[in-house]
Design brief:
Blueprint (H helix, E strand, L loop, with lengths): L2 H14 L3 H10 L2 H15 L5 E8 L5 E9 L5 E7 L1 H6 L3 H16 L2 E7 H6 L1 H13 L13 H12 L3 E2 L1 H8 L3 H13 L3 E5 L6 E6 L6
Parallel strand pairs: 3-4
Antiparallel strand pairs: 1-2, 2-3, 5-7, 6-7
Helix pairs in contact: 3-7, 9-10
Length: 221
């Protein structure tokens, strides 16, 4: 299923379950920035919207409704709030009282057990690959990603560390240049790491040629 169709079904399913202001808020609040986050980052990260709730209502410390852009709720009680923040509405046009309320709101959400993650709209639009990599790093700490019992060699550990420094993906040529090893060995080590479940190959736009390798597990040690 393509993004547009999945997105329409996602929003419709939540609209059908809501009434009153909760429904109205979703109709009014889910706009370009929120959709861009889903398309540029979330869809590429997950390929689905399971556990994600748009315009999620929380009653704040004053007894007033606050609607987060997205809540992501996992089994076991883990909860995240994702906010897409434009410069004008969240910084440029905010007065001192608004800033103070923003800080209290973030503290209140932490008290409720939410992990709050904010994204600048400009980054969602212009640097989605970096946000995709950083968000995946965060979520991988909590989503129970299985770790191998096999120990990695020194060279394999160095490759995983290099990938972390390069936003989690690299090419064999990056290994040859940074770690001073020949291309054949670099390529072979990447294949071994893929077989062990540490990396996955990323194909180019033609879906034929592998252009990069992406780190999908955290480094041990």
């Amino acid at each position: 299923m393509k993004f547009e169709q999945a997105h329409q079904q996602f929003i419709r399913s939540h609209l059908d379950r809501r009434t009153g202001e909760r429904r109205g808020r979703l109709e009014r609040g889910h706009r370009h920035g929120e959709k861009l986050f889903l398309q540029n980052i979330w869809w590429l990260l997950k390929g689905n919207f399971v556990g994600l709730h748009p315009e999620y209502e929380i009653i704040d410390w004053r007894g007033k409704s606050y609607f987060a852009d997205f809540a992501y709720i996992l089994k076991g009680g883990l909860k995240f709030i994702f906010e897409i923040k434009g410069y004008n509405t969240h910084v440029k046009e905010m007065d001192r009282q608004g800033f103070a309320n923003e800080c209290k709101r973030e503290l209140f959400l932490k008290g409720l057990g939410f992990h709050l993650i904010s994204f600048a709209y400009d980054d969602v639009e212009q640097q989605p690959e970096l946000l995709h990599a950083l968000l995946r790093m965060v979520l991988s700490r909590y989503e129970g990603m299985p770790m191998t019992s096999e120990s990695l060699s020194f060279a394999e550990n160095e490759i995983t560390r290099l990938a972390l420094s390069m936003s989690l993906s690299l090419r064999p040529i990056d290994i040859t240049q940074q770690l001073k090893m020949n291309y054949r060995r670099a390529y072979g080590l990447l294949q071994d790491l893929c077989d062990k479940g540490w990396f996955r190959p990323i194909r180019g736009e033609d879906s034929q040629r592998i252009t990069r390798y992406e780190l999908i597990r955290n480094v041990i040690g």
